[in-house]
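The instructor's notes for this session suggest beginning with a concrete chain rather than abstract definitions. Hand out the sequence below and ask the class to guess, before any prediction is shown, which regions might be ordered.
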Amino acid sequence: MLTHEKSTLKVAVVEDCFSAREYRGTNLEYNIIPLTTLTELKEALVTVAPDIIILGENSNPFEVATQLKDKYTLLLAVDEPEIMKWRKAVAVGIRGIVEKPVTYEGIVSALQNTSHETRHIYDNEDNVVYIEEPDTPLPRGAKVRREAPQRITPIEEIRKEIRPAISLVNQEKTGKLVTFYNTKGGVGKTLFSINTAAYIAKLYPSKKVALVDFDLDFGDVANFLGVEPKITALSWQYIPDNDIKNVNIENYLIKHPAGIWILPAPIPPIDEDIFTHNIATKILSTLKKHFDLVVVDLGPTLRDVIVVTLDHADNVFLVSTTNIASLRNVYDLVRIFDGLKVNPDKIKLLLNSFKKNVDLQEIKKYIPYDVPLIVPYIKQIEDLHNNYNLSLNDKRFKVYLEDLAALIVGRKPVERGFFSFLRR
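After discussion, reveal the predicted structure:
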């Protein structure tokens, strides 16, 4: 079991229209403070004691910055980075601008304000001419810009007290988190989530495995495994954020005879205004510190909890059958993931109930993700799953679980043909 602490940066977000999809990252603790009056804002900041403050464009950032710049490190969050925004921000004491969606790396880059970032902002403008002398003749239509601003002082000199000195290399090793997802239901997400968690726990008894059900509408993990959900994901809202290090995490999970720890979905279905992205972040970041592997079964939606899970995941398995509706959903997710800036290298396409007459190359033309696993339709597996039975002992399905487990734990899967299970 891994017990190392992971450095966390406490961020106060002064934003009237906060969206969890715009403020993300696994090393960040966000505290949302809607702007009312400057007096109330200052009182709230004293309570939060943030390492850094991010001002939204709709929160009167330049006026606010003049009141806070002497005591806090400030950044401006923008939808589109522009040089004039940057200059105006720096002029009132804001250290830099960070583009939405905000991430840990984006904050570090904005604070260090490298010359690369400065060039990137300037490159967004056409017909820009930099001049040294005021009488220099200009081409028609050119915009006047003085010499490029100097590089801002590195973060170590800006705020030495910022925890944890904001260094990307200061990240402790934690457990691995994998998730199974598709916005189409009935494709096998829960099938693979449950059986993968149980199989790896069986294959590697020394590893501690957690299974989380984040299908907030119709989560079925508890029913499938026959456990009474006395504890659910919503129970974690009662764990004080400032005391979670002293809590016995296993008291907020359910131990199953298959050797895994389960966190069922809330019952009945619950709105994300109640089960917030902050609760999801608390669950995932904590479990990664205490477990070697965390498997998350996601619902067929695009709630904030989905976005939070995608951020924390080391591997995202998009589960799809080969029917048009399922593949079309995956095709749409390619564009959505690109907009959310989900790292494409961690996304894998898992084809379930694959039919031999389907053209795999045609699928790859439209869905650019790696396809490490293709599972054929197996009638017995469908029957076992529909009757709430694990499929670990099915000889044919076990072949594919072995390959999936190898991918997750970092071993190279055995190469097999489509009907390889017939030779077993």
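Then share the key points. Residues 9-158 form a domain with the Rossmann fold fold (CATH 3.40.50.2300). The two ends are 35 Å apart (CA to CA).
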